[in-house]
Amino acid sequence: xxxxxxxxxxxxxxxxxxxxxxxxxxxxxxxxxxxxxxxxxxxxxxxxxxxxxxxxxxxxxxxxxxxxxxxxxxxxxxxxxxxxxxxxxxxxxxxxxxxxxxxxxxxxxxxxxxxxxxxxxxxxxxxxxxxxxxxxxxxxxxxxxxxxxxxxxxxxxxxxxxxxxxxxxx
Length: 170
Ligand code: HEC
Ligand code: HEC
Fold this sequence. Notes:
7 helices; 38% helix; mainly alpha; binds heme C
């Protein structure tokens, strides 16, 4: 490949990455909270399922989840100690109770103080927002389960759940 072509490719990939990071927020009411991405989180937490935005659960939930990765929903998702520590810190810093963002705050408020859910899909916020989606819809082949947010919210990994972006696949 010619030198100038390599440079051009490099430049385009750099600018699209930063565009992705810049838009990585939990939108709502026009106030988008930018989320710093973390390379280890993005690599390790997307191998079995989509990446769940840290603003979807409170800090205590992420701590509990990250300290039990050897028994993660029936799977062994263990990490080395350094990686585990780095990802936990990233999730905690950007968690639902740390974000200055309406959606994250509502999620947080929907969880009783004495409960530490590990599933976003079990929070009151989630169930109230999806009470019109039937159990059969979630079970469609094209979706799988309610946990597969990206099937219907194409920008879910970026923390964008705005109504204009929702499309339920057949
Ligand atoms: C070895 C595979 C595997 C890896 C790696 C993994 N997970 Fe999971 N995760 C699962 C399975 C299986 C479920 C349950 C999915 C279901 O019920 O549909 C799950 C569920 C979840 C849920 C709950 C989703 C819901 O229903 O609301 C969260 C949050 C989650 N994982 C976060 C993480 C994070 C953070 C990491 C990285 C530290 C991670 N996962 C790495 C397998 C994995
Ligand atoms: C079967 C498709 C489907 C899946 C899977 C799904 N959603 Fe939704 N979601 C919807 C629909 C449809 C609505 C709009 C409900 C309404 O407006 O009455 C919605 C609404 C929402 C809203 C509120 C949007 C707003 O501004 O009113 C949030 C937040 C949300 N979903 C998050 C999630 C998360 C997080 C996941 C995964 C853990 C998920 N959804 C999985 C279909 C889905």
